[in-house]
Amino acid sequence: MWWDRGMNDRPLADMRVHYDLGRLEESDLAGTPLAQFERWFADAQSGGVIEPNAMVLGTSEGNMPSARTVLLKDVDRDGFTFYTNLLSQKSVELRLNPKASLVFPWYALHRQVVVLGEVVEVSRAEAAEYFAVRPRGSQLGAWASQQSQPVTRDELDAAYEQAAARFPHEVPIPEFWGGWRIRPTSIEFWQGRESRLHDRLRFSGSGSLDDPAAWRVIRLSP
């Protein structure tokens, strides 16, 4: 069987990681999902996680889900925010079905955070404020890329050079670029445990992420 061989003839069963770095009890949780996320995010920053703000975004237009990694750019009482091309596949799907999932895969800590919620577009003012502090290369890349559309490498490089020539100084925010905010209805904190008896504690509710009255905690079987 393929699972007996694995890659390079190494059995996949031998790739199993023993989750023994910690546990997550109800008494360990912060009082709100925002405070708990900020606590774990700080652990990820100091614990050797590469790009701890990288998150897998799941969207769906209909019966076919799609997923990709994007970068968290803000988290506050209102939700989790990222920025992208507003004509991209993810943006098209979010307009048609304004619901999404996020997964923060913090493997180095044997942890993950899973977010489910409703999605809203951030204001143009907020998007412009963030765009203004992006590196110039990223600003020009936003103008050059017709995200999710077919392109050759030469065409993409040429579009970047054209953007650089068009905007030799300040780069304005494109009209087709903006942000999305996921307003959670659940945030699950997952801690790996030995014998696959993992800890799964989920905040369920709605409203401000820093309001303890808006959320209840349930433990889920691993």
Secondary structure layout:
Layout: H1 2-5, H2 33-46, E1 54-60, E2 65-71, E3 74-76, E4 79-85, H3 89-96, E5 99-106, E6 111-121, H4 124-131, H5 136-144, H6 153-166, E7 177-191, E8 199-205, E9 215-219
Antiparallel strand pairs: 1-2, 1-5, 3-4, 4-7, 5-6, 6-7, 7-8, 8-9
Helix pairs in contact: 5-6
Give short descriptive properties of this protein:
6 helices, Pnp Oxidase, Chain A, single chain, alpha+beta, 222 residues, 9-stranded antiparallel β-sheet
Would you give an account of this structure?
- The protein is α+β, with helices and mostly antiparallel strands.
- The protein has one domain (19-81, 99-177, 185-219): Pnp Oxidase, Chain A.
- Helices cover 26% and strands 32% of the residues.
- It has 6 helices and 9 strands, in the order ααββββαββαααβββ.
- Strands 1, 2, 3, 4, 5, 6, 7, 8 and 9 form a 9-stranded antiparallel β-sheet that branches.
- A hairpin with a 2-residue loop joins strand 3 (74-76) and strand 4 (79-85).
- The longest helix has 14 residues, at 33-46.
- The model has no long low-confidence stretch (mean pLDDT 94).
Order of helices and strands: HHEEEEHEEHHHEEE
Task: Provide the low-confidence segments as ranges.
Answer: none
How many alpha or pi helices?
Answer: 6
Q: Average the pLDDT over all residues and give the rounded result.
A: 94
Largest β-sheet summary:
9 strands, antiparallel
Structural class: alpha+beta
Principal-axes shape call:
globular
Number of strands: 9
> Hey, roughly how much beta strand do the residues contain?
25-35%
Helix content: 25-40%
Tell me the CATH topology: Pnp Oxidase, Chain A
CATH class: Mainly Beta
Number of domains: 1
Output the radius of gyration. Answer: 20 Å
Second CATH tier, the architecture: Roll
CATH superfamily: Electron Transport, Fmn-binding Protein, Chain A
- Span of the ends, CA to CA: 26 Å
